[in-house]
Amino acid sequence: MAKDQVKLPLSVALDVVLQGIRIRFGRSMVAFAGVALGVAFLMSALTTQILKEGAAREEEMRLEVQRRISFLTAETGPPRGKTIGVIQVGPLDAQETRLLDSLARDGLAEIRWAGDPATAPSAVRAIVRPAPLETVGAGASAICVVGDGPAPEADFRELLNDARQKVLILSRKAHRVAPAADLSVTTLERQPPEDQLRKLAEDADRDRLRSFWIVALSLVVTVISIANSMLMSVTERFKEIGTMKCLGACRGFIRRIFLIESAMLGLAGSVAGLVLGAAFSLAVSAATYGQMLALQSMHAGPLLADAALAIAAGVGLSIVAAIYPANVASRMVPAAALRTNI
Amino acid sequence: MAVGRSELDALLAPAEGQSRRSIIRAVDVRKVYRAGAQETAALSGATLNIYEAEYVSIMGPSGSGKTTLFNMIGGLRKPTSGKVYIDQVDIAQLDTNELAWLRCRKIGYIFQTYNLLGVMTALENVMLPMSFAGLDGERAREKAIDLLKLVGLGHRILHKPDELSGGQQQRLAIARALANSPQIVLADEPTANLDTKTGADMIDLLAWLRAELRVTIVAATHDLRTLQKSDRIFWIEDGRIVRVARPEEIDFHSGRLKTDGALQ
Fold first, then answer.
1. Using H for helix, E for strand and C for coil, what is the string for B99-122?
2. How far apart are CA A249 and CA B106, in angstroms?
3. Whose CA, among A131, A188, A268, B173, lies 20 to 30 Å from A14?
4. Which value does ipTM take for this structure?
5. Among the partner residues B95, B124, B132, nearest to A249 by beta-carbon distance
């Protein structure tokens, strides 16, 4: 005969939960705030990580571009008023773009572009003059090969004939050029030394570990506070629970009510928390590294991944925290509803 | 106070003209509550028999075990020893889910403090136990509306409990108790919080329901009017049923039995 007791439609449980939250708004806010703060802390730590790594990478790139510019300047003199020839063999990467931008800013007069002028960085388009490969070196201080692809088969000495200086620069290691007499070739790309890479990785790991423990601790505190708040809610609602049991609610239904309630508060709190945490992190990073750098370091991909993680953590922990209180509620004796004293 | 054989028969016999099918039967029920080393015997051998479609009142001073007995026959607690049969089923044999089902389908509760869910409207309150029994949707709604009309709340179905008067709340509680067409309705001091007129209306309503729907009504009460409308009255004292009588056998002015109370 117990088999006749149908699994209660989720919609009824959901209804009871939503009305309950609305009625006990003030108390729900405690659990909500607990989750929001815990998730904010988690999100803030994650976002800070992204921003720090982003800033570090930015810094590195800037230094690298600086190095290249210094090299160029050493070879060909300051770019003011000069012309360079660019042989573009594929799409440009960030460093190549930055290099050209920087040269233009420093007063480069003209870039003779052998390739697809549409791929030239927008900041330099004003000084780009499309030119065929044969005359790309006319009046140039140097010829530079840029882009993702192999260098063209060409007689570079021939190309550099009309150049002011016989400087051939290869942007990438992949732009291999056959060695030839009186042709000086330099490649800009270099591999960062082994130990430098290792140090960077170690630093990142250490940071991660440190923040992991702090965040884990704060999440434990969050779970405890949610459990406490839910437990209070359960003991306050002894009459409601007892009445529902008298009306025939089975343990599973009562348990479900509290778990769903906690999950919903957890979801709401997580969303609020992640916005709060990300915003806080951004503000701190902007203060530390400057607004531009901070904004540049916010990459959508890792940020969304972290947001999903924060929500999953918030909801998951809320449910875990509610397990004990939900069990207490489900085990309550129905006769509790008949008690006239608390 | 020992109960003799003939008195036991008297206890177990239904009122005249009533069906002889036993709906609730308690046999030598004992309930002991343990608080640390302290043991309290709430019930020390209560025995009673309630028949189908009877209107029964249970009276007793505070501390007599009335509430505990009520809990037992309502399937809310199991006895420490002795047997409680609800519609021939021994409740000690049932597990928690089966007991929940019993409460859902066979028994309707009317609490002294109404215990209505404030978050829901009158209609939703009545429909809630129906969904526990697997009845929902349009049929549940229609049945709920019929029940609310039956108790005179047809015009208030979308009101929340705190928008209803005390009497109306009690009526809502009655409608809810009838949601799953139970065989038994347990009423815990149904008129305690009501004024005279409303209380009288309540009792009439319960009696009418009993006649119309053939439900068995068991009321724990001190109210004289309830006693007068009952088929039988049980007295509980010190954890035992010490007396059973019919209202016509009681002199309500002196509170004594008209005939010599052999069980005294």
1. HHHHHHHCEEEECCCCCCCCCCCH
2. 14
3. B173
4. 0.79
5. B132
Q: Where are the domains of chain B?
A: 1-36+46-106+182-190+215-257
**Chain A partners of B101 at a C-beta cutoff of 8 Å?**
1-2, 4-5, 248, 250
Does pTM top 0.90 for this prediction? Answer: no
* CA pair distance B195, B180, nearest whole angstrom: 29
Is B1-36+46-106+182-190+215-257 in CATH node 3.40.50.300? yes
| Tens digits of residue pLDDT in A160-184 | 888 887 788 888 887 777 777 777 7
- Look up residue A104 and give its two tokens: 């233009």
| d(C-alpha B118, C-alpha B126), whole Å | 12
Per-residue pLDDT reduced to its tens digit, B96-147 = 888 888 888 899 989 888 889 888 889 989 998 998 888 878 888 999 999 9
**Contact of A144 with A172, CB cutoff 8 Å:** no
- Does the CB of A21 have a partner CB in chain B at under 8 Å? no
What is the token pair recorded at A318?
């809320």
DSSP states of A81-133? T-EEEEEE-S---HHHHHHHHHHHHTTB-EEEEES-GGGS-GGGGGGEEE--G
